[in-house]
Amino acid sequence: MSVPAPSADNRAVVTGASSGIGAALAAELAARGYSLILVARRGEVMAELAGELTAEHGVAVEVRAVDLSEPQPRAALCQELASRDIAILCNNAGIATFGAVAELDPAYEQAQVQLNAVAVHDLTLAVLPGMLERRGGGILISGSAAGNMPIPNNATYAATKAFANTFSESLRGEVAGRGVHVTLLAPGPVRTDIPDPADASIVDKMVPDFLWVDTVHTAKASLDALARNRMRVVPGPLSKGMSLAGQFLPRSLTAPVAGRFYRKLGSD
Ligand SMILES: NC(=O)c1ccc[n+]([C@@H]2O[C@H](COP(=O)([O-])OP(=O)(O)OC[C@H]3O[C@@H](n4cnc5c(N)ncnc54)[C@H](OP(=O)(O)O)[C@@H]3O)[C@@H](O)[C@H]2O)c1
Hints:
The chain has helices at residues 20-31, 43-57, 71-82, 106-134, 155-175, 202-206, 215-227, 237-248, 251-267, and strands at 11-15, 36-40, 61-65, 86-91, 137-142, 180-185, 190-191, 213-214, 232-233. It is α/β, with parallel strands linked by helices. It has one domain: 3-Layer(aba) Sandwich (Rossmann fold). The strands form 2 sheets. It has a 7-stranded parallel sheet with strand order 3-2-1-4-5-6-9, sandwiched between helices. A two-stranded parallel ribbon has the order 7-8. The chain starts with 10 loop residues before the first strand and ends with a helix.
């Protein structure tokens, strides 16, 4: 088998479903007929989205308000998911910080590692045995083009995304031929909302509109890629350029250039 068709019993899980790419993945999965389990911290935002998706597509939508950077609630969610029929897991929740690690809040940097790397690992390990037993499942992991290279002033994020990128592409090789698809989403900048010109970031100012991709396009491209068991999906020309530079230019060259740019982001 491959990614199972939607059924009354199975579920697609989306982490980070309360905004951005995660909300778009949830909407696209619902449009494709999947009943959902939405995960993020803001339960009320997800409850509103759940109501909309049920009204529009007639799917069941369950909400789990869980802080995935906290080991205990994360473990409880993993236990639940291990016992359910999970057709698709979108490991998408993530946060980023900009600036020198020594100057940033250590607790938030540690939470970033827990969320961007440890939670991705824990949730995948929770659903994988069931998927392999049923010989069907899809795991989409939101890594980043930032995970392809060292980035001073974005060190924790780049390192956690290197974990996500490598874990996804390695796992895919392990489960090949066993019915489980694994796809890495590794974008550069994805526009999650239209910025107010008054507080547009340096990235908003520098990147012309035609180079941006939006969350709806990103979600569709990601789920199409997962259905085809593509190794990696990189939406949009800017993401593709960043991805190629990060993968094929010498790291000694890309690190200082990226570091200077991200220092500006940190002081933005
Ligand atoms: N947008 C981009 O340009 C871009 C580029 C490359 C990679 N990515 C990756 O794509 C993914 C989605 O990005 P996005 O831009 O759509 O992000 P976003 O709009 O900031 O959304 C992040 C999501 O993660 C959830 N989240 C944050 N902390 C959490 C926690 N401790 N526990 C549970 N959920 C938590 C947030 O919900 P709550 O606040 O309700 O918890 C929210 O739903 C991330 O992994 C990101 O690194 C994004």
